[in-house]
Specification:
Elements: H1 9-14, H2 35-42, H3 47-52, H4 54-67, E1 72-74, H5 81-85, E2 90-93, E3 97-100, H6 116-119, H7 121-133, E4 139-145, H8 147-156, H9 164-172, H10 174-198, E5 202-207, H11 215-236, E6 242-246, H12 253-260, E7 264-266, H13 273-277, E8 284-289, H14 291-296, H15 299-311, E9 317-321, H16 331-343
The structure holds coproporphyrinogen III.
The site of coproporphyrinogen III (CP3) has 21 residues, from strand 3.
Length: 344
């Protein structure tokens, strides 16, 4: 006798199927706002060790699911494991964020993309363990950073408000820039394929620095590489369900949605609801509560959550924040958020 498979509401929403309830997950749902995360983190000497130790990465992935009624687990890792795995020096310094030895025209050739997958194998082990530990109705989300966003850290050596180092590099060293982006496209396709094979149901492409680009640069650095990843991945994993999150894309969002072929577009919190409603109705959307409304909590949060839900009733919608949850967020505000969503 065969039993019907248990539906995964979040995966179904990504695939555009009707769902019994509004699916929800929270960007950076495993992280420093949780005391149990801080306790595990305190036992590791550095952040990358946490990402590369399947036992610990699995544990912190599961932590938010034990507390909250979420529809997805997201693999605990970081977008910067990819440059690390290609041999670039990547460090996370407390209070400072990531620090990398910037790639230059000269050092680019020393990167070893062919070694990356082997170095990333603990991540695939984490995916297998997480899949085995979560309920069958919980969707497992894998991810990578999109090539431009990862390149901004690789070239600049750290985060920056305007990504000037990478924008200048792209314009003044176009051949070197192209080879870096091509390398990241290839490694990302291998990396995401391996995550699917290990048990991921959906992947998200984090293009966190899609802002500050004119339309020509946006098309070249953001749309092109994301489209190539989607196309190449779907040749290897037919119909691979993909969420694209081009943070700050603003007026470039419709072009991104049309050209990349992602199933769902992640909306940052600055995207007006009426603008998002004008996107094609077959496209799913994810978002887009301002994380600081969650931090502040109370009636203002509830009102905005209701507006967001009402705006997207006529299309596939996955509720989420419009960027990652911040470490100062009170846990009872997250509980309240989920109550409001469940009662909507
Ligand atoms: O969402 C999840 O729960 C999964 C884990 C996850 C992390 N980083 C863990 C993390 C995911 C999906 C990411 C993605 C990521 N990493 C992005 C894209 C999303 C976004 O926020 O725009 C970016 C740009 C990075 C790079 C990165 N990693 C930065 C800039 C920092 C430092 C800033 C910060 O929040 O501390 C990190 C470190 C990081 N990645 C932490 C966590 C939980 C905090 C490190 C610590 O615990 O010491």
């Amino acid at each position: 006798m065969t039993t019907a498979p248990v539906p995964k509401v979040l995966l179904d929403a990504v695939l555009g199927k009707p769902t019994s309830r509004l699916p929800v997950w929270i960007m950076r749902q495993a992280g420093r706002y949780l005391p149990e995360y801080r306790a595990v983190r305190a036992k590791t000497t550095n952040f990358l060790e946490l990402c590369y130790t399947p036992e610990l990465a699995t544990e912190v992935t599961l932590q938010p699911l034990r507390r909250f009624d979420l529809d997805a687990a997201i693999l605990f890792s970081d977008i910067l494991v990819v440059p690390d795995a290609m041999g670039q020096s990547v460090r996370f310094e407390t209070g400072e964020g990531p620090v990398l030895d910037p790639v230059t025209h000269q050092t680019l050739a020393a990167l070893k993309p062919e070694k990356a997958l082997e170095k990333l194998s603990p991540v695939f082990e984490s995916v297998r363990r997480i899949r085995a530990a979560i309920r069958p109705e919980t969707t497992l989300i894998g991810f990578c950073g999109s090539p431009w966003t990862v390149a901004t850290y690789m070239i600049g050596g750290h985060g920056s408000a305007d990504q000037a180092a990478a924008r200048i590099f792209a314009l003044t060293e176009p051949a070197a820039f192209k080879s870096l982006i091509d390398m990241l496209v290839d490694v990302s396709v291998d990396y995401l394929e391996a995550q699917f094979r290990a048990g991921a149901d959906v992947v998200q492409l984090f293009e966190s620095w899609a802002l500050n680009l004119d339309e020509v640069a946006f098309s070249e650095y953001v749309i092109g590489p994301n489209r190539r990843i989607v196309e190449a991945l779907r040749k290897r994993v037919p119909n691979a369900p993909i969420i694209g999150f081009p943070r700050g894309a603003a007026g470039n969002l419709p072009a991104y949605a049309a050209a990349t072929g992602v199933n769902v577009i992640g909306l940052d919190y600055a995207v007006p609801l009426a603008f998002a409603q004008s996107l094609p109705k077959t496209l799913g959307v994810q978002g887009n509560l301002d994380p600081l409304r969650l931090l502040a909590g109370g009636d203002q949060m509830d009102a905005r959550v209701c507006d967001i839900i009402a705006a997207f009733r006529d299309r596939p919608h996955i509720f989420n924040l419009g960027h990652g949850i911040v470490p100062q967020t009170p846990i009872d505000h997250v509980e309240r958020l989920l109550r409001v969503i469940r009662e909507s």
